[in-house]
């Protein structure tokens, strides 16, 4: 019971930060690798289009979708910087970065978080693996899945993403455009 209460509290805190940031006219940037990249894109799509009901689009961008940016940064600099460069270019104070990593150790995700914090973005992470992962230490708020099994972590992440999408959508379904 205590464990489930902790998760509910963390998700509620994440939703409050996201909703307030969006109300203030900020945007959501999301990053991750592999399955987490797919989760980043899924989250952005739920917000830009709709989760369950028609409503005004919500400002969300997956940093995993532009092949030209990803490959040019990877080629000209280093793959560790593919998300950092985008946060530096697109992020502004008050925006929110959601960093997704099954291990909590992805160097390029950590680089994005550090760049976001330097620019004054709020940061949150979805991760699995060890409780003291580098990502959990870097972000403002961390949602940690207590597993090292990639499939279970990713399944939990998409559940959290759907819950957050619904909570955000409920706030903005009948409100002004964002």
Quick recap:
The protein is of the alpha/beta class and 178 residues long.
Explain what you see.
The chain has 178 residues and is α/β, with parallel strands linked by helices. The chain has a single domain (2-172), classed as Rossmann fold (3-Layer(aba) Sandwich), CATH 3.40.50. It is 54% helix and 13% strand. It is built from 7 helices and 5 strands, in the order αβαβααβαβαβα. It has helices at 2-23, 35-48, 67-76, 82-90, 107-119, 134-138, 150-172, and strands at 28-31, 60-62, 96-101, 122-127, 141-144. It has a 5-stranded parallel β-sheet, sandwiched between helices. The longest helix is centred in the C-terminal third of the chain and has 23 residues, at 150-172. The chain is globular and about 45 Å long. The model has no long low-confidence stretch (mean pLDDT 94).
Keywords for this entry:
5-stranded parallel β-sheet, alpha/beta, Rossmann fold, 178 residues
Blueprint (SSEs and pairs):
Layout lengths: L1 H22 L4 E4 L3 H14 L11 E3 L4 H10 L5 H9 L5 E6 L5 H13 L2 E6 L6 H5 L2 E4 L5 H23 L6
Parallel strand pairs: 1-2, 1-3, 3-4, 4-5
Helix pairs in contact: 1-7, 2-7, 3-4, 4-5
Distance between the first and last residues' Cα: 37 Å
CATH class: Alpha Beta
Following the backbone from N to C, one meets helices and strands in this order, namely: HEHEHHEHEHEH
Task: Provide the CATH topology.
Answer: Rossmann fold
Give the structural class.
Answer: alpha/beta
Number of beta-strand segments = 5
Query: How are the strands of the largest sheet arranged?
Result: 2-1-3-4-5
Looking at the overall shape, the CATH architecture is 3-Layer(aba) Sandwich
The helical percent reads: 40-55%
Tell me the domain tally. 1
Report the sheet-strand fraction: 5-15%
Per the principal axes of the C-alpha atoms, what is the gross shape? Answer: globular
